[in-house]
Write a structure and sequence with these properties.
Elements: E1 6-12, E2 16-23, E3 29-36, E4 42-43, H1 46-56, E5 63-70, E6 76-78, E7 88-89, H2 97-107, H3 110-117, H4 126-133, E8 144-146, H5 148-156, E9 167-169, H6 170-173, E10 179-180, E11 185-186, H7 188-195, E12 203-205, E13 210-213, E14 219-221, E15 224-225, H8 226-234, E16 240-245, E17 249-252, E18 267-270, E19 276-282, H9 286-296, H10 300-309, E20 317-319, E21 336-338, H11 347-371, E22 378-382, H12 389-399, E23 402-406, H13 411-425, E24 435-436, H14 446-465
Parallel strand pairs: 1-5, 5-14, 5-15, 9-12, 16-22, 22-23
Antiparallel strand pairs: 1-2, 2-3, 4-7, 6-8, 10-11, 13-14, 16-17, 17-19, 18-19, 20-21, 23-24
Helix pairs in contact: 2-4, 4-7, 8-13, 9-11, 10-11, 10-12, 11-12
Domain Carbohydrate kinase FGGY N-terminal: 7-224
Family: Belongs to the FGGY kinase family.
InterPro entries: ATPase_NBD (IPR043129), Carb_kinase_FGGY (IPR000577), FGGY_C (IPR018485), FGGY_Carb_Kinase (IPR050406), FGGY_N (IPR018484), Xylulokinase (IPR006000)
Length: 471
């Protein structure tokens, strides 16, 4: 029997570190581990390392290569010695909302940013966080700015020294706000615009490059951002759109061409293979359902049953911006319920409205990708929220495409492992992704549901945009 060649993929996500050890040839998962992160939007990166040590304990024997998929956009500031000088500011921290407006205006507006980097910054982007931290005491000690995946990759290297040799990749660099996917280059002038001076930036490694070696003798692959890693783990094909319902909601697709959307809806990211990954992201996804279930006094199974058996939402509309919102760009917003009557103030109607509101936001995301010329033949529904029967039943009508369910898996870690296998063997392996059928679709008037949602959003946008909306 041929001995397995083992590779490891790490998902350093918002909520946890997950580690998969896989067969490099087939992608079969041999071992796995997990450890939680603090529930905060500003975190000491040492917590990620602590979680890695717990999650990987006992898993790494025989691993020949490893790569890290990390949460995008998080800002890690380092001094000359490589020490962290400020808590990492994560993608879902909206403290930089005012800084975002300043930066977008200072370069000349959304069109100027789209032309420069292929995206219009929102508070999630690293460049806005750099402006936000500029006048804080820690900024004076900063020599370099890196991303979570960059920091973890460098920390894994046995010969790391200070900030020398830190690397990133195209996928993660494209979410900073100072790297252009179209030109494959840094815009250091945008770092200076945001921070007032230059900072050291990681070298952008090639997709299959080996960037170091661990203390346990494994080659370290370039790694990438979480969405690019998920696309690699899913083996997205042209015409596929991945719609993920996790902490955030995302819709993304592979493209052979760079995109530049001046509306700011579609971020013109790069992928982990040398191509592109246009992406739309919302801050609110699966937790909309769990929060509504809690409000209704239901567990998730009861909530799901109520939503799927309800005859409809009867005109009740939920704008699900419970944690502010990234797309549409409403960082100060809160959720809003419209259409309350004695008839609609029922648990089943409220549950249905929550699922419809969640999916309408993601339908807007899928439509934004269509507007960039991307074909949408098939939607791959994934993430914790994809397990919901009501989501599965309503998604085909509201998203306007065939829906399939990839087998539940840690696709970010799986994509990172596939990238590690690529670095180890020199060839990107073909790993099969089994897909299943969703819950039978419910026939609904999707056009009416989406029109109601858009009308309520349009009529209340000024209220939702107010910085005083959160009191």
């Amino acid at each position: 029997m041929t001995e397995l060649r083992l590779v490891a993929g790490v998902d350093c996500s918002t909520q946890a570190t997950k580690v998969l050890v896989c067969d490099a040839e087939t992608g079969a998962v041999v071992r796995e581990g997990r450890a939680p992160h603090p529930d905060a939007t500003q975190v000491d990166p040492a917590e990620w390392w602590k979680a890695w040590e717990i999650a990987s304990d006992g898993l790494l024997d025989g691993v020949q290569a490893i790569a890290v998929g990390g949460q995008q956009h998080g800002m890690v500031l380092l001094d000359d010695a490589g020490e962290v000088v400020h808590p990492a500011v994560l993608w879902n921290d909206t403290s930089s909302a005012d800084a975002t407006e300043e930066l977008v205006a200072e370069l000349g507006g959304p069109e100027a940013w789209a032309e420069a980097i292929g995206s219009v910054p929102v508070p999630s982007f690293t460049v806005t966080k750099l402006r936000w931290v500029r006048d804080k005491e820690a900024a004076s000690r900063a020599s370099a700015v890196v991303l979570p995946h960059d920091w973890m990759t460098h920390r894994l290297a046995a010969d790391r020294q200070g900030i020398d040799g830190i690397t990133t990749d195209r996928g993660d660099a494209s979410g900073t706000g100072w790297w252009s996917a179209a030109t494959n280059s840094y815009r250091t002038d945008l770092v200076e615009l945001a921070f007032g001076r230059q900072l050291a930036l990681p070298r952008v490694a090639g997709p299959a490059e080996i960037v170091g070696e661990t203390a346990f003798g494994a080659a370290i692959g370039a790694g990438t951002g979480d969405n690019a890693a998920a696309a690699l783990g899913l083996d997205l094909q042209p015409g596929d759109v991945a719609v993920s319902l996790g902490t955030s909601g995302t819709a993304f697709a592979r493209s052979a061409n760079a995109t530049a959307d001046p509306t700011g809806l579609v971020a013109g990211f790069a992928d982990a293979t040398g191509e592109y990954l246009p992406l739309v992201c919302t801050l609110n996804a699966a937790r909309v359902m769990s929060a509504t279930a809690t409000m209704l006094g239901l567990d998730l199974a009861e909530f799901d049953e109520a939503a799927i058996t309800s005859p409809g939402s009867d005109g009740l509309v939920l704008l699900p911006f419970l944690d502010g919102e990234r797309t549409p760009d409403l960082p100060h917003s809160t959720g809003l319920i419209y259409g309350l009557t004695r008839a609609t103030m029922q648990p089943a109607t409220m549950a249905r409205a929550a699922v419809e509101g969640l999916l309408c936001g993601l339908a807007d995301a899928v439509d934004a990708l269509r507007a960039q010329g991307l074909p949408v033949h098939r939607v791959l529904l994934l993430g914790g929220g994809a397990r919901s029967r009501s989501v599965q039943a309503l998604a085909p009508a509201l998203l306007g495409a065939e829906v399939v369910l990839p087998e539940p898996a840690e696709y970010v870690a799986l994509g990172a492992a596939r990238q590690a296998a690529w670095a180890l063997t020199g060839a990107l392996p073909t790993w099969q992704v089994p897909v299943g059928k969703p819950e039978p679709a419910i026939t609904v008037d999707a056009a009416k549901i989406r029109a109601n949602y858009e009308q309520v959003l349009t009529n209340t946008r000024q209220l939702l945009s107010s910085p005083y909306n959160r009191g």
